[in-house]
Amino acid sequence: MANKTFDIIVYGATSFVGQIITRYMHEQFADGAVRWAIAGRSADKLKTLSDAIGLSGVEVIVADAADETALKQMCAQTRVVMSTVGPYALYGDLLVQVCAESGTDYCDLTGEPQWIRRMQIRHEAEATRTGARIVHCCGFDSIPSDLGVHFLQRLALQAFGAPCSRIDMRVVSMKGGASGGTIASMINMVKEAVRDPGLRQELNDPYSLCPPGHAFSRPQRDVKVEHDDAYGGWIAPFIMAGINTRVVHRSNALSNNSYGTQFLYEEAMVTGPGAQGKRKARATAWGVNALMIGLAIPPVRWVLETMVLPKPGEGPSEQAQLEGGFDILFHGSTATGQTIRCRVTGDRDPGYGSTAKMLSQAAACLAGDVADDVPGGFWTPATVLGDKLIERLEAHAGLVFERLP
């Protein structure tokens, strides 16, 4: 890929999160260390964005997500395509196909496990043949989870000489506006599941994204409303656990079962101690269940889509992004009972401000830090980017990974 014109093309640059990414890229790589361009389907919108930010010298590329010829021409010019065009199950298939066929590295923000599995089945053999490294889930879902587990397992190996056989991830705090793109992806996934009994079964499999022949059979636990003694408070289900846990298990599989074949991993929201914490946990669990049931019923879904939930292209104000953040704890224990903890924090709202920085640094890491001899295929952030990405996130994206006493 040495002769490529660009290191990174931001595809979907005029989307809500794409605009945040474009501004961040402009600030972060003003020194020219990374050669990048913006792309999308509307030349007028791309020009308006470029003029508004002042992207002098940053090329604009027009390519519709349904135009295979345009996508091929775009991929021929770059080492990495960074895609924000979702819901990916509706608009992302052809770009992944073209990247896999052309040997172009790719990363995105998807949190759609059913789509990721389809892409793996259809294109992994071709990506392996051409050398394309495909890396899904490079935003809030699932970088903090995937790299948080990776970081804690590294600490455990250093401290105990053995990995953690169980890790509990707890979201202590999370402040930020709901992502319209994430909601749209969730709505589409529910629509697919309502139509397809096989998909409903697949979505109940915690190992659905692991490669064929994986050695994992341990039943994973569904978090309920309960008291967590390790955290001194009540916990409730975390709505993003459905994608995050699957990415973590795939990382285990791709790293030669380095976490162990009996590895147990779960995620939950911490709602606090006492009666108030219990009430909040119950309300959180009820809210998650009610949302999923509502999305499965067409008339209710219509009301939620049109009157309640944020839409793609909508998101929090710049001030809200700056005031947002997240604090996530990981508690690990080895098979012999030794325990270790770490924390991952972010300084912007999870769905937009932090996600934009995480995806941008993942793309830069994929373009500049991953050796050319790393084979193609469908990777996870932890397995192909790992410690190099942690270094970038701490240096340039406002994330902190730290061991706790």
- As a percent range, the share of strand residues is 15-25%
Q: How would you spell out the order of helices and strands?
A: EHEHEHEHHEHEHEHHEEHEHHHEEHEHHE
State the major sheet. 7 strands, parallel
* Share of helix, binned: 40-55%
Q: Keywords for this structure?
A:
405 residues, alpha/beta, Rossmann fold, 2 domains, 7-stranded parallel sheet, globular
Task: Please render the helix and strand layout as text.
Layout: E1 6-11, H1 16-28, E2 36-40, H2 43-53, E3 59-62, H3 68-75, E4 78-83, H4 88-91, H5 93-102, E5 105-108, H6 113-130, E6 133-135, H7 143-160, E7 166-175, H8 180-195, H9 197-203, E8 226-228, E9 233-237, H10 241-254, E10 264-272, H11 274-296, H12 298-308, H13 318-323, E11 325-333, E12 339-346, H14 350-368, E13 377-379, H15 381-384, H16 386-396, E14 400-404
Parallel strand pairs: 1-2, 1-4, 2-3, 4-5, 5-6, 6-13, 7-10
Antiparallel strand pairs: 7-11, 8-9, 9-10, 11-12, 12-14
Helix pairs in contact: 1-14, 3-5, 5-6, 7-10, 8-9, 14-16
Can you give a write-up of this model?
The chain has 405 residues and is of the alpha/beta class. The protein has 2 domains: 6-140 and 353-399, Rossmann fold; 143-349, no CATH class. Helices cover 48% and strands 20% of the residues. The protein has helices spanning 16-28, 43-53, 68-75, 88-91, 93-102, 113-130, 143-160, 180-195, 197-203, 241-254, 274-296, 298-308, 318-323, 350-368, 381-384, 386-396; strands at 6-11, 36-40, 59-62, 78-83, 105-108, 133-135, 166-175, 226-228, 233-237, 264-272, 325-333, 339-346, 377-379, 400-404. The strands form 2 sheets. Strands 3-2-1-4-5-6-13 form a 7-stranded parallel beta sheet, with helices on both faces. β5 (105-108), α6 (113-130) and β6 form a beta-alpha-beta unit. α3 crosses α5 (93-102). It starts with 5 loop residues before the first strand and ends with a strand.
